[in-house]
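Lecture notes, part 5. Sequence design as translation. It can be helpful to think of inverse folding as translation between two languages: the language of shapes and the language of residues. The source text, in structure tokens, appears below.
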């Protein structure tokens, strides 16, 4: 028995000595511990097999080996200005360690972000396929930070969903999820959740959200809070509540104005109401205060617009952005950014008119309220087309309804109809329409008449995994109601269940009856 034990000890120490140079000092200490444990267990358990345990430890230890010193190839990767320079590194006789192939792919993604048209030709390049194969073979030894960047880069390179290499990286991320630092999880959430949703990587996204929710207490900075709220807040209300408690209120004094503005915009985008709403908005008033006027003009508009969405705006804030000397700089802008800001100014102006009756001036000039062609120049969706066709069939005459009605409030109605006291359609053009610019018609509405607005809600208009509208569309609905309309909501998830033309017509009739009945019941 003793002879067998000595023989086993000799073999064990010989194998450990051969493996020790490849393992870090910490790893050598762990090897010694495993050796001691194995000897002990060998004496009591004849079924133990040391080679399996030792090789498993070494394989695990290699993941945590110190990062190699910078080599010439690292500089070549960073300085590369063309994809060809990166692909040539594969056959250039360079010594590539386990992270280099991943770093090359990450750099390729950055270069091609400036030339998206070159992605298709790159994917067909044999050297690119060789690079993918190399990364796949080394994936278990790629460092955590490089791994999450690699996944983002493969998404950006638009690899097909069935790509073996992409699936391998996704699986590796899932396996390592518990060991990733929160900053790595936050990076994935900030850079890759949109890709995960588009590619239907549901399992990976679900695990990412689970870890973000469970480990939220590991967040150390305000920027991460804002990024989480903006990127995945709509996917997890519980995470939003925890972030609010941890960083918005408990660390109120250290919250900077830019971070607070971004949080406010995140809340408005999702139409999210904090659990401690009064305390949160008291903090907003305290922090913004006189600093609102000192913010960048575009950010000022964003902040006031967010307060409008959340129904927290005050007259002083409305006045700050609606005064002529402020809003004039955005009236003639042609860039997408200027047009977006101007659109928000229209919504702010509508809030002042419709939701603050005590507010009188200043307001945007009448000339600024005339709808621009860009408001109507959008691609027609299948739901929009079917809704118009079905409604035209119900109306029977073209003068009984209007479609794609651009209002002075910055919102476009899918359709507008008038009903008399007996719920019969009336010709629109004969009656006054104060919501248009300039107002049309001359006759006042007959007693008991009702103006109906049809609003379709597509999939992107909703919070993910819910039937709650995003803040922008909640504001639109509020404004249309305040302008005197009865709203007929047509959400995509209800319309998709209708198979025949008869069902669609009956659906709209029922919606109209319900809208009228709710109004009469008030």
């Amino acid at each position: 028995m003793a002879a067998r034990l000595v023989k086993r000890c000799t073999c064990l120490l010989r194998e450990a000595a051969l493996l020790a140079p490849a393992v870090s000092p910490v790893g050598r200490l762990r090897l010694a511990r495993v050796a001691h444990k194995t000897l002990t267990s060998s004496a009591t358990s004849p079924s133990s097999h040391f080679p399996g345990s030792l090789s498993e430890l070494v394989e695990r230890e290699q993941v945590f080996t110190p990062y190699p010193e910078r080599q010439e190839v690292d500089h070549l990767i960073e300085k590369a200005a063309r994809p060809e320079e990166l692909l040539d590194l594969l056959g250039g006789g360079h010594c590539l360690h386990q992270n280099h192939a991943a770093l090359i792919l990450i750099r390729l993604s950055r270069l091609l972000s400036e030339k998206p048209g070159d992605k298709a030709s790159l994917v067909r390049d044999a050297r690119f396929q060789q690079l993918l194969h190399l990364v796949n073979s080394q994936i278990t030894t790629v460092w955590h930070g490089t791994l999450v960047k690699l996944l983002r880069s493969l998404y950006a390179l638009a690899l097909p969903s069935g790509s073996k290499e992409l699936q391998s990286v996704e699986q590796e991320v899932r396996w390592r999820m518990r060991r990733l630092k929160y900053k790595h999880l936050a990076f994935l959430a900030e850079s890759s959740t949109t890709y995960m949703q588009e590619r239907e990587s549901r399992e990976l996204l679900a695990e990412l959200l689970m870890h973000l929710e469970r480990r939220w207490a590991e967040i150390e900075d305000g920027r991460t809070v804002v990024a989480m709220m903006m990127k995945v807040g709509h996917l997890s209300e519980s995470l939003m509540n925890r972030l609010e408690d941890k960083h918005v209120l408990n660390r109120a004094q250290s919250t900077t104005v830019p971070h607070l503005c971004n949080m406010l915009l995140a809340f408005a985008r999702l139409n999210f109401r904090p659990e401690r709403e009064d305390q949160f908005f008291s903090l907003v008033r305290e922090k913004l205060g006189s600093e609102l006027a000192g913010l960048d003009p575009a950010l000022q508009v964003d902040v006031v617009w967010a307060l409008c969405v959340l129904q927290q705006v005050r007259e002083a804030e409305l006045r700050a952005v609606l005064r002529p000397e402020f809003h004039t700089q955005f009236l003639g802008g042609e860039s997408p950014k200027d047009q977006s800001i101007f659109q928000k100014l229209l919504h702010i102006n509508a809030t002042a008119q419709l939701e603050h009756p005590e507010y009188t001036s200043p307001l945007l000039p009448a000339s600024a309220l005339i709808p621009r062609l860009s408001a109507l120049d959008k691609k027609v969706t299948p739901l929009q087309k079917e809704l118009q066709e079905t409604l035209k069939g119900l109306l029977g005459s073209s003068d009984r309804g209007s479609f794609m009605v651009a209002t002075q409030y910055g919102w476009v109605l899918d359709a507008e109809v008038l009903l008399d006291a007996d719920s019969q359609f009336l010709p629109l053009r004969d009656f006054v329409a104060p919501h248009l610019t300039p107002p049309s018609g001359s006759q006042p509405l007959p007693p008991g008449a009702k103006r109906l607005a049809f609003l379709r809600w597509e999939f992107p208009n909703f919070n993910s995994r819910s039937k709650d509208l995003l803040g922008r569309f909640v504001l639109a609905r509020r404004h249309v109601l305040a302008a005197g309309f009865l709203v007929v909501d047509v959400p995509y998830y209800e319309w998709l269940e209708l198979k025949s033309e008869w069902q669609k017509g009956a659906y709209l009739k029922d919606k109209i009856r319900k809208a009228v009945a709710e109004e009469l019941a008030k």
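The translated text above is only one of many valid answers, since several sequences can fold into similar shapes. Residues 501-521 form the longest helix (21 residues).
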